[in-house]
Amino acid sequence: MATNLIVNGQRKSVDADADTPLLWVLRDHLGMTGTKFGCGIAQCGACTVHIDKTAVRSCQVPLQAVANKQITTIEGLSTDGSHALQKVWVENNVAQCGYCQSGMLMAAAALLRSNPRPTDADIDAHVSNICRCGTYPRVRAAIHKAAQSIKA
Predict the structure, then answer these.
(1) Domain spans of the chain?
(2) Which of 5, 7, 94, 113 minimizes the number of CB atoms within 10 Å of its CB?
(3) Which of left, alpha, beta for 40 (phi over 0: left; psi -120 to 50: alpha)?
(4) How many helices (H) and strands (E) does the chain have?
(5) Could you tell me if 58 and 21 are in contact, meaning their C-beta atoms sit under 8 angstroms apart?
(6) pLDDT tens, position by position, 15-47
């Protein structure tokens, strides 16, 4: 049975088991490989996407839970890299290996949507994604820089 989704503003119909994790629906059924698999137990954050504007770890969200909900992936943050966070990520050389970055960007975007002037403590609490390369100081600096360019 097909499930209807709204992914990055576009309606999609997916024929997959209702308990299939959203991560695999995005990657395997829709070919959207920007969302990464990291741990499979919602701990690392590599698979972070937005569901109805809330950051969630897609590896633990079953397809049946997101029918007709607004899903935003890294591909939907901006199509051309023009989102304030994407710009400062590049300017601050945040990414090292880059594997965690799509999830990190999605968590940061959700934080700035709810808190346009976060403190370091706010960033640490809401952007809890694991970065194997340890670029956390650059992540914090980039989020603060993006916050300055976003009108509250």
Answers:
(1) 2-77, 84-149
(2) 113
(3) left
(4) 6, 5
(5) yes
(6) 999 999 999 999 999 999 999 999 999 999 999
Burial class (CB in 10 A: 0-12, 13-18, 19+), 119: exposed
Q: Which residues pair with 3 in a beta bridge?
A: 14
Proportion of the chain in helix, strand, coil states, percent, rounded to 5: 40, 15, 45
Q: For residue 27, what is the DSSP state?
A: I
What separation in angstroms does the CA of 75 have from each of 9, 31, 49, 80, 81? 11, 11, 10, 9, 9
Say if CB 16 and CB 25 are below 8 A apart: yes
Give the pLDDT confidence of 139-149 residue by residue, as tens digits.
Answer: 999 999 999 98
d(CA 79, CA 96): 22
Residue range 2-77, CATH number: 3.10.20.30
pLDDT at 152: 54
Taking 70 as the threshold, does the pLDDT of residue 125 lie above it?
A: yes
CATH of 84-149, one of 2.60.40.1120, 3.40.50.1820, 1.10.150.120, 3.40.190.10: 1.10.150.120
